[in-house]
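FORM 12-B: Structure-to-Sequence Request
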């Protein structure tokens, strides 16, 4: 996750530096764009979700040296799409509401010595979140046709694939999560003022504040019995058009 932040920051700063170098005195585009009280747009992008686990106890290693505690997470890329509503507070501050749909998938690998069948070691967790974030955007002074910013705030997400109400659990092959989760979000980006619209690449980290796990009925379940909490964390890379 840290690598994603550093790579994206480098790309954004390089793009901005090239823009400044080759356009020292540019013709200003969309000069009144940021003076509107309300502004609208949409975003497209991709994500990579992960889980952060906290365990009740460290179960150590078996005779062959296999870890009996750690649940492995194989991450994959998903996609984001949504709308933007922005309210201007002043020259440097904007309040944003960005409802969106975020689809992602994670593959969990459980410590196999604790599970009888090899076929039960893996669980694919597909999540379709409808995210409702309220964010504060803090911008620097506009430089020609670009302007950097940082953004952060809180969000509430509805997981349409949570299986929270399912009567089945991992004994029947169903991994269950809570339907609602609360998060905080932090990120940065750069606004580019083009001739006909404002284009914004940005990167954001999303971190769950609440435990998402619905434990199995058996308190000694080899899948969930040793999990104290399971919280989503992820990276969003979005491209915004306003």
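FORM 12-B RESPONSE
SEQUENCE OUT:
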């Amino acid at each position: 996750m840290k690598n994603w932040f550093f790579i994206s920051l480098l790309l954004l700063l390089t793009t901005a530096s090239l823009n400044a170098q080759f356009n020292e005195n540019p013709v200003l585009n969309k000069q009144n764009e940021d003076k509107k009280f309300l502004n609208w747009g949409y975003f497209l992008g991709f994500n990579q979700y992960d889980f952060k686990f906290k365990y009740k106890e460290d179960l150590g290693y078996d005779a062959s040296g296999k870890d009996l505690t750690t649940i492995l997470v194989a991450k994959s890329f998903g996609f984001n799409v949504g709308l933007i509503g922005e309210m201007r507070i002043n020259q440097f501050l904007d309040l944003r509401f960005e409802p969106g749909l975020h689809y992602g998938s994670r593959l969990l690998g459980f410590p196999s010595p604790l599970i009888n069948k090899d076929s039960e070691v893996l669980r694919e967790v597909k999540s379709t979140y409808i995210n409702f974030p309220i964010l504060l955007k803090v911008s620097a002074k506009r430089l020609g046709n670009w302007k950097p910013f940082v953004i952060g705030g809180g969000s509430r997400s509805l997981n349409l694939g949570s299986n929270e109400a399912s009567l089945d659990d991992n004994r029947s092959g169903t991994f269950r999560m809570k339907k609602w989760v609360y998060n905080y979000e932090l990120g940065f980006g750069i606004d580019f003022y083009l001739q006909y619209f404002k284009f914004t690449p940005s990167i954001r980290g999303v971190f769950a504040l609440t435990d998402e796990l619905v434990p199995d009925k058996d308190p000694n379940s080899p899948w969930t019995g040793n999990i104290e909490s399971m919280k989503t964390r992820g990276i969003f890379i979005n491209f915004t058009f306003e």
